Amino acid sequence: MFDLDLWREIFQSINKNRTRSLLSGFTIAFAILLFTILFGIANGLQNTFKQAFVDDAKNSITIFTGRTTKAHNGLQAGRRIRLKNEDYDYVGEEFDSKIQYQTARIYRNTLASYKNESNTYDLRAVHPDHQFLEKTLIIDGRYINQNDLKNKTKVAVIGRLVEEDLFIKTEALGKYINLGGVQYKVVGVFRDDGGDNEERIIYMPVTTAQMIYGNNDYIDQIKIGYNPELDYDQAIAFGNLLTRKLKTRFDVARDDQRAIRVMNMAEATKSVNAMTVGLGIIILVIGFGTLIAGVVGISNIMIFIVKERTKEIGIRKALGASPKSIVSIILIEAILITAIAGYMGLLIGFGVLELVGPSLEAYFIKDPGVSNTLVIGATMTLIVAGAIAGYIPAKKASKIKPIIALRND
Predict the structure, then answer these.
(1) Could you tell me where the DSSP H helices lie in 156-264?
(2) Under 8 Å CB-to-CB from 192, ≥6 apart: which residues?
(3) How far apart are CA 149 and CA 205, in angstroms?
(4) What's the confidence (pLDDT) of residue 403?
(5) H-only helix segments in 250-400
(6) Are the C-beta atoms of 110 and 120 separated by less than 8 Å?
């Protein structure tokens, strides 16, 4: 049953010893506050890493070309390396077992218009697999398909914001959009988690772009998705092999870093994962170190409290109080102070993260926060520690004979 007198006595004790109660509460609140902020910052850094790769497949490899910086096999430096359809086919055939997705890319900038609305957008000519490598999410219609490539059809898939810009009072699907003087049928509308810039892109078939823009077989990039069964080390080895093979194919020196470049997401992901794990361990050690410091602080304070109240305990026993009632008073007081202070530290910690969160993006910390479960678990740990810290000395004091307790100095 709820004992009103017991609780009244506990609050009177807390009020009577304000300094002691405040010191106890400060130790706990500070531990939870620091714990919350540390884990919030760690999560913010992890969010930054995730955001950087949110709109690209984690298993992607992109092949770029440029100009040679070194002479090789009798060929002069400064040669321009250009990829063609035959190079695209070579990569797919040579490494078929290691490739899940593959697409070429051709980049253009185009003036797009529909009726009286017009604007300039990035245009990308791609293969169907590009949808999966770029994590393009179709919200209306479809993406580029094999028939579009085979027939060199004049179709376009536009970003959500392109539709908003040009098709103000109607839906874009099925309408014809003018791209640089050529009419294309809009067969799909997409969204992209990479942000507004990614949703202001227009996609079209590679073969159509090659026919219209120069009637050639050149491509700007090759992007592939390696077999997801490969681990990071195997994927990195595959990327290195791909680089060597292409440099041999184009007579490029092995130490020429500009002629052919291969950006392998496996390398970036492995580095980010290692950094995240290391950061997590550091934060975990610091966080739990803070909690341990809080536990030690609570223990010391509770030992002092019990010692300070030894005469009081003796009087209670002399008046017939049971050891159980003596222990319960001290125990409930310890739990109450710990719970209230822990909750205050939790609120302040969340408040600090909410207040300074936006300004931390400049330091690559995005949306710092911490799960309620983690912080509540930490608070419960301190509450249990406070209970144990109060119980052990209180139990010991409750066994002292009244006459000895009354003589205590």
Answers:
(1) 160-166, 206-212, 232-249
(2) 55, 134, 135, 136, 137, 159, 198, 199, 201
(3) 6
(4) 66
(5) 265-308, 310-318, 323-356, 372-398
(6) yes
Give the predicted TM-score (pTM) of the model: 0.70
State the DSSP string of 17-38. Answer: THHHHHHHHHHHHHHHHHHHHH
Q: Is the pLDDT of residue 228 over 60?
A: yes
Burial group, residue 322, by CB count within 10 angstroms (0-12, 13-18, 19+): exposed
* Separation of alpha carbons 379 and 395, rounded Å: 24
Tokens of 298: 């609570």
Q: Across all residues in the chain, what is the average pLDDT?
A: 84
Q: How many residues does the chain have?
A: 409
Q: Give start and end residues of each alpha helix (H) in 114-159.
A: 130-133, 146-151
- What is d(CA 120, CA 116) in angstroms, rounded to the nearest whole number? 14
Token pair belonging to 95: 């490494």
Q: Closest Cα partner for 92 from 242, 267, 314, 302?
A: 242
d(C-alpha 27, C-alpha 382), whole Å: 10
Residues 6+ apart with CB under 8 A from 378: 32, 35, 287, 291
Q: What's residue 1's pLDDT?
A: 42
Give the containing element (helix H, strand E) for 117: strand 117-126
* Backbone CA torsion sign across 73, 74, 77, 80: negative
Q: Retrieve residue 127's tokens.
A: 């293969």
Alpha-carbon distance 148 to 157, whole Å?
A: 12
Q: At what angle do helices 310-318 and 323-356 cross, to 10 degrees?
A: 140
Query: In this structure, are residues 301 and 20 in contact, taking their beta carbons and an 8 Å threshold?
Result: yes
**In degrees rounded to 5, what are phi and psi of residue 114?**
-145, 115
Read off the amino acid at residue 144: I
